[in-house]
Write a structure and sequence with these properties.
The protein has 492 residues and is α/β, with parallel strands linked by helices. It has two domains: 247 residues, HAD superfamily/HAD-like (Rossmann fold), CATH 3.40.50; 157 residues, Rossmann fold (3-Layer(aba) Sandwich), CATH 3.40.50. 33% of the residues lie in helices and 14% in strands. The protein contains twelve helices and 21 strands. Strands 9-8-5-17-18-19 form a six-stranded parallel sheet, with helices on both faces. Strands 11-10-12-13-16 form a five-stranded parallel sheet, with helices on both faces. It has a two-stranded parallel sheet with strand order 1-2.
Length: 492
C-alpha cells in the first residue's frame, strides 16, 4: 500500500528566519513558513568567497551574451531568487538560481555520520548555496528514512551541523507521509524513538489518540516481564485500561529503543482479536495493520560497521509471527525509500520549494539524488526515474552503508567518494548539457545563414556580430531548455 498522492506540501507565502541556537519547535510551527538559520548568518548575509567575484563574473557573462545577441531576445536567462540590485565589490547581488536541475539528499551516511557532519558535506552545501564558479544557487531538499523527531527538530539539528539555512519545507522524514493516515485511524500505537518524542510527532500530525508501549506496560507490567519503566517513563505514561482499548493501527515511527518489549507488544496485538491487547484470535488475521516508516535493514552510524535498523525489526516481527502462528504470514506496510509514494511526495515538495524560495514555477528537468544505501536510495531513485516525467539521476557515495569493493545490489548512474564529489559531478553534467544545447543552436543558426547566402538572400544585421536573414524565422531556445550555466560557446 503506497502513500496517497493527495498529500501536498503546504503553500509558503512568506518566510521567517530563526536562529538555530535559540529556535524552538513552537516558534517553528507557529506563524507561517520559516527557515532555521545559523546564528552568524541571521543578521548578516554570508559574503561571497571572493569579494566582488560574483558581480565581476556576471558582468563578464553579460558582455559575452551581448556579443552573441542572445540576451536581448531573452533566449538565455538566469532566474534570480530576489529582485536584482546593482552589484558592488562590497555588496554582491543575490545569487541567481539554477532552474533546470536540483538535488535531493539522504542525510545519514551522506551529510552526517554518527551525529557529526561529514566534512565534505559542509563544502557541498556552500557550493549549492552560491559559492561556485558560476555564482548560482541550486535548489535542494532532504529525503531521509530517519525519524523519531519532528521535521522542525531535524531542521535545527541539520542547520547546526552543516552551518546552513534549513526549512521544514525542505524536509521529508520516513514518517512524514504517515500524516495521511490521520483521518483513517482513531486510537493508534506508536513505536520507537526516545521518550515521548514519537507520541509528540504523531500528535503534531493530527492523530487524536496516541498510545505508546510505556502506556501499556504501566497498565500491566506483566506484558513485558523484563522491561521495567523508569521513573520518568512512569510519569509520562498515561493511565488507562488498555485491555478495553481498541488499537486501530500500529505505526513504527523510529528505531526501537527496546526491541524485546516492543516486539512482544506488536506480536500481542498482531495476534489479538480486533486490536484488544490480551485477547487471542483463532484465525490470526484480526489484528491491526502495522506500518513502518522505512525498511532499511542497516544504517550508517558512528561505528565502523553498519548498525541494524528498522527493516531488521520488521523482518523479526514477521518471522516470529509466522513461527508463533504455525505458518501464518503477517503482511506489514513500509513507507520511506524506496517506496514510489515517498518519491512522489518529494517531487511535490521540491516543486513547492523551488517556487517559494527560488521563484521557479516549473519542475526541474533533472533531480540528482545522492544516497549511501543501494537497497533504498538507489533502488528507489532508479524505480522512480522509470515513471517520472523528469529525470531522477542516482548517485551513490562511499561514506555510508555502501562498502567499497562490493557490487551494489542496485546500480547507480555513478559512484563517487563524497557528497561534494556528487555535487560537482551533477553541476558539471548540467554545464556540459547547457553548452551542448547552446552549441547546437548556434550551429543551426550558422547553417541557416550559409544556406540563405548560397541562395542569394539578403541579410539584415540582427547585431554587430551575427548577420541574420531578414525573412528567416527567429530561432530561440525554449524556456524549458534555457541554459542556466553559461559560457561563450565555441566560435562557428
Amino acid at each position: 500500500m503506497a502513500p496517497s498522492s493527495s498529500l501536498m506540501p503546504p503553500a509558503r507565502p512568506g518566510i521567517r528566519r530563526l536562529s538555530s541556537m535559540t529556535a524552538t519547535e513552537r516558534e517553528i510551527k507557529e506563524g507561517g513558513p520559516v527557515v532555521v538559520v545559523p546564528e552568524r548568518m541571521l543578521h548578516h548575509r554570508r559574503a561571497h568567497t571572493h569579494n566582488g567575484g560574483f558581480a565581476a563574473s556576471m558582468e563578464t557573462a553579460r558582455k559575452e551574451l551581448d556579443a552573441l545577441n542572445l540576451e536581448d531576445d531573452g533566449a538565455l536567462s538566469l532566474t534570480s531568487s530576489s529582485p536584482q540590485t546593482p552589484g558592488s565589490p562590497v555588496t554582491p547581488p543575490e545569487a541567481p538560481s539554477a532552474d533546470a536541475f536540483a538535488f535531493a539528499f539522504d542525510i545519514d551516511g551522506v551529510l552526517v555520520r554518527g551525529g557529526r557532519p561529514i566534512p565534505e558535506a559542509i563544502e557541498a552545501m556552500k557550493v549549492l548555496n552560491g559559492e561556485n564558479e558560476w555564482g548560482i544557487k541550486v535548489p535542494y531538499i532532504f529525503l531521509t528514512n530517519g525519524g523519531g523527531k519532528t521535521e522542525a527538530e531535524r531542521c535545527i539539528d541539520l542547520s547546526l551541523q552543516l552551518d546552513i539555512e534549513v526549512s521544514p519545507a525542505q524536509f521529508i522524514c520516513g514518517h512524514t507521509p504517515m500524516r495521511e493516515m490521520v483521518e483513517k485511524y482513531g486510537t493508534v500505537l506508536v513505536i520507537g524513538g526516545e521518550g515521548e518524542k514519537c507520541r509528540q510527532v504523531a500528535e503534531g500530525y493530527g492523530f487524536r489518540d496516541v498510545v505508546t508501549p510505556g502506556d501499556i506496560i504501566k497498565d500491566n507490567a506483566a506484558t513485558t516481564p523484563f522491561r521495567k519503566l523508569t521513573a520518568e517513563e512512569q510519569r509520562n505514561s498515561r493511565d488507562r485500561n488498555y485491555g478495553e482499548t481498541k488499537i486501530e493501527a500500529i505505526f513504527v515511527f523510529a528505531d526501537s529503543r527496546d526491541w524485546a518489549g516492543d516486539i512482544q507488544i506488536m506480536l500481542d496485538l498482531a495476534m489479538s482479536k480486533g486490536g484488544y491487547i490480551g485477547t487471542l484470535s483463532e484465525t490470526f488475521d484480526e489484528g491491526p495493520p502495522i506500518y513502518f516508516s522505512h525498511n532499511d535493514i542497516v544504517w550508517s552510524a558512528a561505528h565502523d560497521n553498519v548498525r541494524l535498523g528498522m527493516g531488521a525489526l520488521r523482518k523479526m516481527v514477521e518471522m516470529l509471527f509466522k513461527d508463533l502462528t504455525k505458518g501464518k504470514e503477517l503482511e506489514t506496510i513500509a513507507f520511506g525509500k524506496p517506496q514510489i509514494g515517498t518519491f512522489e511526495f518529494a517531487t511535490r515538495l521540491l516543486q513547492q520549494w523551488r517556487k517559494d524560495e527560488h521563484r521557479i514555477n516549473a519542475p526541474p528537468e533533472t533531480v540528482y539524488f545522492v544516497g549511501d544505501t543501494p537497497e533504498s536510495d538507489i533502488k528507489g531513485t532508479n524505480m522512480f526515474n522509470e515513471k517520472a516525467k523528469n529525470e531522477w539521476y542516482s548517485i551513490l557515495v562511499r561514506t555510508g552503508v555502501y562498502q567499497e569493493g562490493t557490487v551494489p545490489a542496485y546500480e547507480p548512474k555513478v559512484t563517487v567518494d563524497t557528497v561534494l564529489d556528487a555535487v560537482h559531478h551533477g553541476m558539471k553534467l548540467e554545464f556540459a548539457k547547457k553548452m551542448r544545447r547552446a552549441s547546437e543552436s548556434f550551429s543551426l543558426d550558422n547553417l541557416v545563414m550559409k544556406n540563405k547566402s548560397l541562395n542569394g538572400d539578403n541579410y539584415e544585421l540582427n547585431s554587430d556580430k551575427i548577420p541574420y536573414p531578414s525573412n528567416a524565422p527567429a530561432i530561440k531556445l525554449s524556456e524549458t531548455s534555457t541554459p542556466d550555466l553559461i559560457e561563450s560557446p565555441p566560435a562557428v
